[in-house]
Every structure is written in C-alpha cells, then in structure tokens.
Write a structure and sequence with these properties.
By secondary structure, this protein is mostly helical. It has one domain. It is built from four helices and no strands. Helix 1 (2-17) packs antiparallel against helix 2 and helix 1 (2-17) packs antiparallel against helix 4. The radius of gyration is 16 Å and the shape is globular.
C-alpha cells in the first residue's frame, strides 16, 4: 500500500517538475498505477481482516470516507490555488505524500501484525 502512495507522490513530483508535455503521459500512467496498487492492497486487507457479517458496512464506510476525503482535498486545492500556481501546488502535494510514506515505512518497520 505504501508503494502505491509513494508512486503516486513521486509521479506528482515528476509531473510538477517536467519541462516537456511528452512526459505527461508516463507520469499520469505511473500515478494511475499507484492508485491501482492502493485499491488492490486496501481491497485485500478489507476482505482478509473483516468478518463476513459486517463486510458490507465496512465497504460502505470506506466508500463514504473516500468521497469525503476527495471533497476535502478539492476544498484544500481550491483554497491553495489562489495562493500558489499549479506547479508548486503539485510539487507540494507530491512531497507531502512521499514524506508520509517514508515516515510511515520507518514507523511500521518494527511492528508485527498478529
């Protein structure tokens, strides 16, 4: 799951710092690949760790949380677009994702799942 987030963040950084539009297609492809990694990892975790009786409720909660986080991200970007140009905004989002992934990876290094 962290690989997908890191790939998404790295592709945002790449997209923000590129100088030619020919590189936009590979950057968008890698961003979509990162999203696919996240969807597969989250779906596998939900199916594996959730009791069958409440699987529908957990899935509904995750769908609602996804919609809410998308809405809040759009609100944040709308607020920041008045202060930043698109390039620095994408760079900021990509750096934030990469920092979260790296810090989470170091935090999870010593933990064990039961």
């Amino acid at each position: 799951m962290l690989t997908g987030l890191f790939l998404r963040g790295a592709s945002l950084i790449w997209y923000a710092t590129m100088t030619r539009y020919a590189w936009a297609v590979p950057a968008a492809f890698l961003a979509g690949l990162g999203d696919d990694f996240l969807i597969v990892a989250l779906g596998s975790l939900v199916i594996e760790r959730t009791k069958p009786g409440i699987l529908g409720k957990v899935t509904a909660f995750l769908d609602t949380a996804n919609a809410l986080s998308t809405f809040l991200a759009l609100v944040a970007v709308s607020f920041l677009k008045t202060r930043l140009f698109p390039g620095p905004l994408l760079l900021l989002c990509g750096l934030a994702l990469c920092i979260v992934c790296i810090s989470t990876a170091f935090g999870l290094r010593g933990s064990r799942l039961s």
